[in-house]
Amino acid sequence: MLLDNLVALLPELNKAFFETVYMVGISILVAIIVGLPTGVLLFVTDKGLFLENQLFKNIAGFIVNMIRSVPFIILLIALLPLANLIAGTTIGPTAASVSLSVAAIPFFARIVEQSLREIDKGVIEAAVATGATPWMIIKDVLIPEAKPGIVQGITITIISLVAYSAMAGIVGGGGVGDLAIRFGYYRYDDTVMITTVIILICLVQLIQFGGDKIAKVVDKR
Amino acid sequence: MIEVRKLVKVYETKKGSVTGVEHVSLTVEKGEIYGIVGYSGAGKSSLIRCLNLLEKPTSGEIIIDGVELTSLNKSELRKARLKIGMIFQHFHLVSAKTVSENIAFALKAAGTPKARINERVNELLEMVGLSDKKDVYPAQLSGGQKQRVGIARALANNPSVLLCDEATSALDPSTTRSILALLKKINRELGITIVLITHEMEVVKTICDRMAVMQDGKIIEEGNVYEIFANPQEPLTRDFVQSILQFELPERLLEERDGKLIKIYFEGEIAEQSVISDVFQNFKVRGNILHGKIEYIQDTPLGIFVMKVTGDPDEIDRAIAYIASRTKNLEVIQYAA
After folding, report:
1. B81, A130: Cβ pair inside 8 Å?
2. What PANTHER family does the record point to (chain B) (predicted)?
3. Which of A74, A208, B112, B219 has the most CB atoms lying inside 10 A of its own CB?
4. In the beta sheet, which residues pair with residue B263?
């Protein structure tokens, strides 16, 4: 009975799993591509740093905080026009990825900024003293020094995205979390709910484990 | 050559403004090792950090190799910094990069062609004695080795000036000696002007040609290292000099009541002459050396002896007058009753 239930669910589960991977994959990529430079800029424009620019810092900081303060479920709906513009559709995993990406960018940017803040200021100063350009300092000092923190940040962002993606069901995004809500929660099907939750637990554990391993490898301190 | 003119650095804090450097003017000649000593908070760190504009001076001018740094724009300043090396108390190496990558960073900053970088890194590593540590990460190095990497990085682009910000303060005495020896070698062989700040008089004594003493943001005394050691003027300078030349006599000796206790300073050539034996040949006194020390500063001896002279009181006075006439400085510590 239990096994039959699960076997019947397998195709759904399989599809949901890949939807989750798809949505999280796109969003984390966008978060890294846009969030990493944003985080770096938030850091280097801070007071006393080599690209100090209070105006930029304040404006960028404000936008980041603003996006982060909107509850994700509201952001998801509010960004449907944007999803339509970018993905050409307002439903499905691709549309959901747009909102997920927008939510992930400021989240990741702040983590990057925080990791950069942990670098010994003296190391940055020594790089400035050599006469290196800002770009060189970012590329050859800041990013390498913050790498362990950034890798941990990617791990945390992926895990948050997995959790957020459960809400993607609202716009028909699918995914494992959505399966848990639709089949398990709304239909009171404990077997499905527990199975999907277990899958999510395993997924998150795996991501954290992998992230920790990579962070350790890149950490030369 | 480095010229600092009327340098002022004021820090704005929430509690009001704090003056770090107050109207400091100084000149460092080409090829010289110039030391600035002072206790922490004296402003010496602000001063050295103003020399390559890591701190922007509030007012005043910094002229290095004929270029007035405060008037430069950002890219001109970067170019000027290529020729001003700097090393730090805590080394400040990039921990995620190997020794050779750390050095290569400075070369890349100067736009050195890729093919030349590896060659130059090898040269530098050989100069600082770390050829075998090329691919090692800083975390695996000792403090002295890290500072050697710092020195190699600072010298990568053949700078004319090397700034040392408490470069040996985090090192143990024997490592300090080896780093100082390396700095001296660099100064002599490459003709690089070195400016260093320290709170250790030992460092100044070992390698500096000229020195300045800083207190409350001002330079209170400046001059040739030997002259300052032999003849300190300000109380703080005397404190610093005493940290090297100090010695204390046991109370017991000061309480003895026969003869006179004199402290004699021998400077330069006099220290190598036989002043003391001449005294005993010419005067009927007996002498007993209770304490003594000869320091060699810039290869010139500076001796201090404490001697008890006994015998006929008049003869003692004559002997003391004779010693005083032949040495620069004589101090009668205590008169016998």
Report:
1. yes
2. AMINO ACID IMPORT ATP-BINDING PROTEIN, METHIONINE IMPORT ATP-BINDING PROTEIN METN
3. B219
4. B306, B331
DSSP assignment, residue B23?
A: E
Helices (H), B24-171: 44-51, 74-82, 99-109, 114-128, 143-155
pLDDT of B255 reads 73
Partners of A131 on chain B (C-beta within 8 Å) are 78-82, 84, 106, 109-110, 157
Domains of chain B: 2-243 (3.40.50.300), 251-334 (3.30.70.260)
The residues, ordered by sequence, that sit 6+ positions from B178 with a Cβ below 8 Å of its Cβ are: B144
Q: For residue range A66-89, list pLDDT tens digits in order.
A: 999 999 989 998 999 999 999 888
Cross-chain Cβ contact A141/B82 below 8 Å? no
% pLDDT > 90, chain A: 67
Residue A201 belongs to some domain of the structure: no
**Structural domain range at position A74:** 23-174
Nearest-10 crossing angle of helices A190-218, A143-165:
180
Cβ distance B94 to A140 less than 8 Å, yes or no, reads yes
The CATH number of residue A96's host domain is 1.10.3720.10
Chain A residues near residue B109 by CB distance under 8 angstroms: 130-133, 136
How many domains is chain A partitioned into structurally? 1
Residue contact A126–B86, C-beta within 8 A:
yes
How wide is the angle at C-alpha A53 spanned by C-alphas A51 and A57, nearest 5°? 110
Among chain B, residues having any CB pair with chain A shorter than 8 Å are 52, 54, 78-82, 84, 86, 88, 90, 92-97, 105-106, 108-110, 137-139, 150, 153-154, 156-157
- pTM for this structure? 0.88
What pLDDT, on a 0 to 100 scale, did the predictor assign at position B252? 77
Contact at CB, B94 and A144, closer than 8 angstroms: yes
Contact B160, B195 (CB under 8 A): no
CA of A114 to nearest chain B CA: how many angstroms apart? 18
Of all residues in chain B, the one with the smallest CA distance to A218 is: B96
Residues of B in contact with A215 (CB under 8 A): none
For residues A138 and A46, what is the distance between their CA atoms, to the nearest angstrom?
14
